[in-house]
Amino acid sequence: xxxxxxxxxxxxxxxxxxxxxxxxxxxxxxxxxxxxxxxxxxxxxxxxxxxxxxxxxxxxxxxxxxxxxxxxxxxxxxxxxxxxxxxxxxxxxxxxxxxxxxxxxxxxxxxxxxxxxxxxxxxxxxxxxxxxxxxxxxxxxxxxxxxxxxxxxxxxxxxxxxxxxxxxxxxxxxxxxxxxxxxxxxxxxxxxxxxxxxxxxxxxxxxxxxxxxxxxxxxxxxxxxxxxxxxxxxxxxxxxxxxxxxxxxxxxxxxxxxxxxxxxxxxxxxxxxxxxxxxxxxxxxxxxxxxxxxxxxxxxxxxxxxxxxxxxxxxxxxxxxxxxxxxxxxxxxxxxxxx
Length: 339
Hints:
Low-confidence stretches: none
Shape: globular
Mean pLDDT: 88
Largest sheet: 5 strands, mixed
Helix content: 40-55%
Order of helices and strands: HHHHHHHEEHEEEHHHHHHH
Number of helices: 15
């Protein structure tokens, strides 16, 4: 994993900053030495690295006076915080599809602790977690990251399955914390510490429920987008790959200009152009490739009108979109519609 590649959204950092601000800690202190300022957290184009997340979370461990800080911060992570990954979860047509999607694509969002395995044992489902920010369970950062993830998964479960959703049990590698009583707000079942792995448990009837808003077409489209992003994650150092991911992740919002993209990457536009030229591409080519791929997906898998697709892809009118599509493919948009 590349800790320096700025390829993830800042939502987790923003949640920690907001939580500490409630306790009187200035955002500048929480963001110290991270290379991020408060304005960047409000910008839709901001992308951060794991290294920056580690810096902010370590600051939080040092600055927090409330033992529930990580749990409170994780509880801010509503499904809308997860971008297209959240859409994929929400649109999962079955419970099995939801589990498969969550395990396969959670890396798209850069989790601080992500599920890597699922196993069902009767009426209990076990999700094995991997903490991404630290490998030492005695490190305070390790526990902070896992607590954040546990609370975030409780919030996500309630958004997906209903407000009554509860987690069942927990097995954690670290020793029982002094504030273990706070865990009872998250779990109905047994809590075990000093284990050989980190496991989150969900019990019946929740393990057989699917999302409240299933949509097979949307789920298939988002899955394809996540596949592309996931395939490029190991190439985090490539500027072109980074820009493609950013463009796709920002859907359905309008695409940024090259000047906006350069500001996000802390580069001068001329420097960005030169770097892309060295990789044999350009911002214009990357934007066209992303638009072309998304346009074909919309035409083949949705009933969106040409006008709607043009607007979604940032074109001023349908005519401009049609001209561009013919230039890309040699065919009209209509020819890509299923018969």
